[in-house]
Amino acid sequence: MHVGVDLGGTQVRAGLVEQDNIHRMVSLPANGRGTSDEVLQQLFSVIDQVITNETRSIGIGVPGLVDIQDGVVYDLVFIPSWKDIPLGQIIRERYGLPVCINNDANCFALGEWKAGKGRGRDNLAGLTLGTGMGTGIVINNKLHSGKHCGAGEFGMIDYLGHNLEYYTSGQFFEHVYRVNGKIVFERATNGDQAAIDMYKQFGTHLGNAIKFVLYALDVELIVLGGSVSAAWQWFHESMWQSIKGFAYKKYLEDLSIEVSELENGGIIGAAALYNDSIK
C-alpha cells in the first residue's frame, strides 16, 4: 500500500492506494494563503487519516517545480508561502517512510498510465487543461520528469505573442473574450452558438499545441484532463482539423487522443511515484 497526496489550489486530498485502487480517501479545503506551517499541518492531517502500518511510501503531487532528488519544493502556483521547502525531508522525518514528490501534471500522466486510458500503452502525454496547461510524460513505461519536474512545459512556449497556455487553458476565455470559462461552458451547454464557437477556436489552438507535443515526443496517446476537457464535444473536431497540418502523417495513423475518466488519477499517480522511481 502507498499513500498518494494531491496538493491542489482548492483541495488537499490524500488516498491509500493498493493495486491502483483507492481504499480510503480524505480531503480538506486548501489554505493556499496560509503560512508555510499552516499548509504543512493540512498536509499532515490528510496523511494521518489514511496512513496505516502497511504503508510502504508516500507520494505527493504539487502544482510547481520540485527537485526530485532532494524533495525540495521551489515555488508553488497556489501557495505563495512555500519557497524552497524541504518537503521530502519533513515528511520522511515525520513518518519514517520513503517520500517521492513530483509535479501534479506528472502525477496525472502516471495515474493515467497505471489505471486509466494509458493502461497497456508504452508512451503517452497527459495534458491538464485548467487554469494553465500542464503536461506529464511517460516514455517507455517510465515517467519522464526532468531535473526540476520541468520536462514537458509546452504551455510556456512562445505562441502568437503570448505563450501556448494563454490560448490552451481556461485563460483563453478570460484573455481573448473577457468572459469566465465556467460561464462559457454553461452557455454552450444551453446551446449558445457564440459559446460553442469559442470552444471551436480553443480547439484550433489546442491542436497546434498538440503538434508541438508530437514533434517533441512522438507518443501514441494523449490524455486530456482538467476542467476544460469537459467541453470535449465542442472542441474536438476543430482540434483534429488543426492536427491534420502535422508534417508526419504516419504518426497520426497511430495517435489516439482521449479524455480522462479517472476521478482521482492524480492521487493514484502520486502513490505510484515510489515504484516508478526504483525502476
TrEMBL record:
Keyword NAD assigned: no
The keyword Transferase is annotated on this UniProt entry: yes
GO MF, one annotated term: kinase activity
InterPro entries the record matches: ATPase_NBD (IPR043129), ROK (IPR000600)
SUPFAM superfamilies per UniProt: Actin-like ATPase domain (SSF53067)
CDD domains named among the record's database cross-references: ASKHA_ATPase_ROK (cd23763)
Name the record gives this protein: Sugar kinase
